[in-house]
Design brief:
Elements: H1 13-20, E1 25-29, H2 30-36, E2 41-42, E3 58-62, E4 66-75, H3 81-84, E5 89-96, E6 103-106, E7 121-128, E8 135-141
Antiparallel strand pairs: 1-2, 1-3, 4-5, 4-7, 5-6, 7-8
Length: 144
């Protein structure tokens, strides 16, 4: 399936720079982590912490690139012209091991349509997009 080529903006540039280096980073709120003693991660990137808003201090934090499939849908009728040829396809919600609130979407390369193993362990893979060469994070099922 051809991937759309994202064009990073000021907010997402650090995330996509890390992808180009085959590393996965997400935002971490230092205020929440210090106050609650828990690693507070968020993805997709936002201007402010989703818990403490403008009082938080966000920085980029490298994570393991491991997670699990939280849920999925099968796309039968996408409005995105470049993806219509590949219909139907999977869209899975991936939660990170480090924080189940840091969520990613994935087509699950190598997983047949409608055969998504709910709750399965996944790992990140980085795929280069055709239009601008930007790498994106996708996820593949680990093991059988």
């Amino acid at each position: 399936m051809p991937k759309q080529s994202p064009v990073p903006d000021e907010l997402t540039q650090p995330f996509f720079d890390a992808c180009n280096e085959d590393r996965l980073v997400v935002q971490r709120c230092n205020e929440c982590t210090e106050r609650d003693g828990l690693l507070m991660l968020q993805h997709p990137p936002m201007e402010e912490c989703r818990r403490c808003g403008p009082h938080g201090t966000l920085e980029w934090h490298e994570v393991s690139g491991r997670g699990r499939i939280q849920s999925y849908v099968t796309m039968y009728d996408t409005p995105v012209a470049s993806l219509q040829e590949d219909q139907p396809f999977n869209i899975a919600v991936i939660e990170l091991w480090e924080d189940k609130n840091a969520l990613f979407l994935s087509h699950l390369p190598g997983t047949p349509v409608r055969e998504v193993p709910m709750g399965a362990e996944v790992r990140v893979v980085f795929e280069e997009t055709p239009a601008n060469g930007q790498k994106v994070a996708e996820w593949e099922v680990v093991g059988d």
